[in-house]
Design brief:
With 410 residues, the chain is an alpha+beta fold. 51% of the residues lie in helices and 14% in strands. A hairpin with a 2-residue loop joins strand 2 and strand 3.
């Protein structure tokens, strides 16, 4: 970083809103109060991001060297769990922004001037960021393959052309990190990287295609790029295809998003508890909460969520401590945690019958939202296949070891 860029960075970062975790319960409540309306209209919760920004939550993971709080994964998990209980759509876009700052804190991979500009925006209002990677033909690049979106170099700029789908928060993003491949030349092979596209760039169009059952307010619309101009230096991680994904980055994604959906499931549990205390059938003459059947069912829900929350929190703390084994186990925790969230809300719906599926009550929304946990990377089938192969490989290695009983003759 040049001295000028460094001084600008420190000056803008010093103006970032201070992190106010004491405001988190009030922010959660305010988000919850508006969540139903945004869900019904599939409208982007702009005012919710203003509240998150004012509490310093959107910049919680900005590195200390930039004047930020430098919040680790354990603290981020707590923030996302609380926001998920209020409005998972706000929590999801917040998560992507926090993950971006956290990655920069670990790697310093952003071009210095580009990151200083982002921090300057974050000092004055919500500056949302997300990585746009999914495409119609490719799907998610985590399963392999090159993106169809291309970056053509011409002088001191790149020109991006392509389409990204499921672009969460697209209408509200300040920066889009567009995963694209370069056009090969005689001197350069194909490379892939994330190109930093500013909102409102000429040639950039957002098509309102999002019509989903869950997380409707996330506005995960299509983004179309038609020769969108990007400065030559505004690219992150430009390299030949096939680089191994960073396990710590994967752990942030897996544990952070799992916490978000556990927060939504916790909100469903809280509504259920209130309902069981308030519901007094005439024939019973007492609240449903007094019946052993309901007490046992709520105990099952509480056990599911407490176990999953504890696992996520423990692994997040171990990732912060630099334990490589924790990062490797994060994907397993995502399977356990998201399954617990879904099972807990399903149980709540089953207990309440028509009340739980009535649109005037939030339980049906919580159920639709937690189902979205399955679509995030890493998906269950990938995690289970990789985990099973690793377990089988360990058994195979043990069987062929000279000291293994099965390797010796009779």
């Amino acid at each position: 970083m040049t001295s000028t860029a460094a001084s600008t960075d420190r000056a803008t970062a010093a103006a970032l809103p201070p992190l106010r975790l004491d405001r988190l319960p009030a922010v959660t409540a305010a988000l919850a109060a508006c969540a139903d309306a945004h869900d019904r209209d599939a409208s982007f919760p702009t005012e919710g991001f203003a509240l998150v920004h004012q509490a310093g939550l959107l910049t919680a993971t900005v590195a200390a060297r930039h004047g930020g709080p430098g919040t680790g994964l354990a603290g981020t998990v707590s923030i996302l769990r609380a926001l998920g209980a209020g409005d998972p759509a706000v929590a999801l876009v917040t998560a992507m922004t926090l993950f971006t700052h956290a990655a920069e804190a670990r790697t310093s991979d952003w071009p210095p001037d580009a990151y200083a500009g982002l921090l300057a925006e974050a000092a004055t209002g919500p500056a949302l960021v997300n990585a746009l990677r999914v495409e119609p033909e490719l799907g998610s690049p985590v399963r392999g393959g090159l993106p169809a979106t291309t970056a053509r170099c011409d002088g001191d700029h790149w020109f991006l052309t392509g389409r990204k789908i499921y672009s969460t928060g697209a209408v509200g993003l300040s920066r889009m990190l567009v995963f694209a491949r370069t056009e090969p030349t005689q001197d350069d092979p194909v490379r892939v990287g994330s190109f930093i596209v500013r909102a409102g760039s000429p040639g950039l169009t957002i098509e309102p295609t999002w019509d989903h059952t869950g997380l409707r307010a996330s506005r995960s619309d299509d983004v179309v790029l038609d020769s969108v101009r990007v400065p030559a230096g505004d690219v992150i991680g430009l390299a030949e295809p096939g680089a191994r994904p960073d396990p710590v980055t994967g752990a942030w994604n897996a544990l952070g998003l799992t916490a978000l959906y556990l927060g939504a499931a916790g909100a469903a549990r809280d509504w259920l508890i209130g309902f069981l205390h308030e519901r007094v059938p005439t024939a019973l003459g007492a609240p449903l909460a007094t019946l052993p059947r309901f007490q046992s069912a709520v105990g099952e829900i509480e056990t599911l969520l407490t176990g999953a929350d504890t696992l996520v929190d423990a692994l997040a703390a171990r990732v912060d401590a630099g334990d490589p084994g924790a990062a490797d186990q994060a994907a397993i925790a995502k399977v356990i945690g998201t399954r617990a969230a879904i099972a807990a809300v399903e149980q709540a719906v089953a207990l309440t019958g028509n009340h739980g599926l009535t649109r005037a009550n939030p339980l049906q929304r919580h159920y639709r939202d937690v189902l979205c946990s399955r679509v995030h990377t890493p998906q269950d089938d990938s995690v289970l296949t990789a985990t099973g192969r690793a377990a089988l490989a360990r058994r195979s290695t043990a069987a062929t070891s000279p000291t293994s009983p099965t390797s010796k003759g009779n």
